[in-house]
Amino acid sequence: MEKNKTIITKKIKDIISRDNKIFLTTTRMNYPFIPESGENDIVRDVSGNKFIDLSSFISVYNFGINNTNIKKAIEKQAQKLVHPGFTDFYAEPPIKFGEALLKFFPKKFGKLFLSNSGTEANEAAIKFAKIFTDKSYIVSFYNSFHGRTQGSLSMTSSKIVQREHFGPFANSVHVPFPYCYRCPFNQKDSKSCGFACIDYIKKYALSKEISGKETAGFFIEPIQGEGGYIVPPTDYFKELKKLLEEYGIPLIDDEIQAGIMRTGKFIALDNFGVGADIYTFGKSIGGGIPMGVTLVKKDRDIPAGSHANTFGGNLLAVSAGEAVLNYIYKNKKNIEKEVDLKSKLFMNRLTQMQEKYEIIGDVRGIGLMIGIEFVKSKQTKEPAIDLRNRILRQAFDNGLIMLGCGESTIRLIPAITIEERNIETGLDIIEEIIKEENKK
Ligand SMILES: Cc1ncc(COP(=O)(O)O)c(C=O)c1O
Fold it and tell me: Are 10-66+332-439 and 68-329 equal in CATH topology?
């Protein structure tokens, strides 16, 4: 295994100290990573340290850092015009982007709203759901993450620090997600439990807390991301949809982290055999330039002036986005195969590690959206939070960028274009660290 020890230079320390002086605290990792340049799955920091990237910078670089197609599209557009004032005036590049996106959806979808981030895409979806249904309540899951602006935050329920101090929240209720490794209903087997969690939604959330008849939308992440890379059972969303149809509640699918081929399908929810009524996108849809997209059915519209923004339809974002979409459209079959093959490389090795090491409680995922949950012991399943954080730090010290999620999970979320040899090296680094930690 190629050894690659990260050196924390004075330059790194200086930059971090200047940063800390002027920026409010955000969610920074417990390692001092200052990326400066990169190529596909390799990134270099300001001091020339080299890393394999298993984070895709939180599902943004789905097709690699500095992707040539995307870069060319941005450069070409930057020569002409960047900001067209798209919600007041007109421009062709956003239309080309929208037309490229609609090719991935059934014909009944056809109206888009463009914004600048995931949370904004979800804010728009909340408003659209309310105006389309003339109803007011929104349901989402405990453990979900839909963004941090006030409306999206009302739905987000991943960590209490994200909500503390910010209530009261909008008309939103939460229901338990099928986190089968830690079933909220203490069921032992997700195949024979009869979906106690869906029963609960019907009997309690939609019957006692709010009226199903007054509910404007039910927000989901097909795989919970920030909340811990939690994959529901295959039939879960089919059952949920049946319930929502009883009340006429629209299903709103947040594809911001899981979408755009990461799970091997353009739309991650397609892995579960159901469609949604509204879709939201962000992160990788702009190829690295900020963009949010809210997609609704073609027979829908909103009154002029009821929703708009300044920067939606930014020409760099839509040009980068169109380059991403055209690339996927032309290469879809190959990308599907690529995700499947690389997913197996990760999963085979990780499930072997799970058998060998007491500290790995669960390994789960679809495609290249994989979580490793760390525990103090397999029997108690007590979350090993410090241990997980130590592993992230040691990985960084050994030239590997990874992110945490949930309480004690590490997410493996590389570019789809990651090289196989870098998957192997990354897994070698991970295993070496886990092996040592497992002895403690
Ligand atoms: C599923 C999901 N929805 C929404 C968001 C919010 O996106 P943004 O940070 O661009 O506002 C995120 C961000 O992590 C996300 O993972």
Answer: no
Question: What are the residue ranges spanned by the domains of the chain?
Answer: 10-66+332-439, 68-329
Mutation choice for ligand 1 from 283, 291, 403, 409, CB with most ligand atoms inside 8 A? 283
Mean pLDDT calculated for residue range 219-238: 97
Q: Which residues line ligand 1 (CB under 6 A)?
A: 58, 117-119, 122, 145-147, 221, 225-226, 254, 256-257, 282
Nearest to 157 by CA among 146, 149, 165: 146
pLDDT digits (tens, 9 = 90+) for 375-414: 999 999 999 999 999 999 999 999 999 999 999 999 999 9
Q: How far is the CA of 119 from the centre of ligand 1 (A)?
A: 6
Q: Look at domain 68-329 and name its CATH class.
A: alpha beta
Ligand 1 closest atom vs CA 152: 4
The pick from 114, 144, 256 for probing ligand 1's pocket by mutation, whose C-beta has the most ligand atoms within 8 angstroms, reads: 256
The pTM score is 0.97
Q: Is it true that domain 10-66+332-439 has CATH number 1.20.1250.20?
A: no
Question: Which of 144, 257, 267, 278 has the most ligand 1 atoms within 8 A of CB, as the residue to mutate?
Answer: 257
Q: Within a 10 A sphere around the Cβ of 68, how many other Cβ atoms? A: 12
pLDDT confidence bin for 3, thresholds 50/70/90: low
Q: What's the mean per-residue pLDDT of the chain? A: 96
Distance, in Å, from the CA atom of 119 to the CA atom of 56, rounded to the nearest integer, reads 19
Yes or no: say if 236 and 272 are a contact pair by the CB < 8 Å rule: yes
Distance CA 124, CA 107 (A): 22
Q: What atom in ligand 1 is closest to the CA of residue 117?
A: 10
Span 179-199, pLDDT tens digits: 999 999 999 888 888 899 999
Q: In this predicted structure, what is the pLDDT of residue 22?
A: 97
Give the CA distances from residue 253 to residues 140, 277, 331, in Å, rounded to whole numbers and listed in that order. Answer: 11, 8, 24
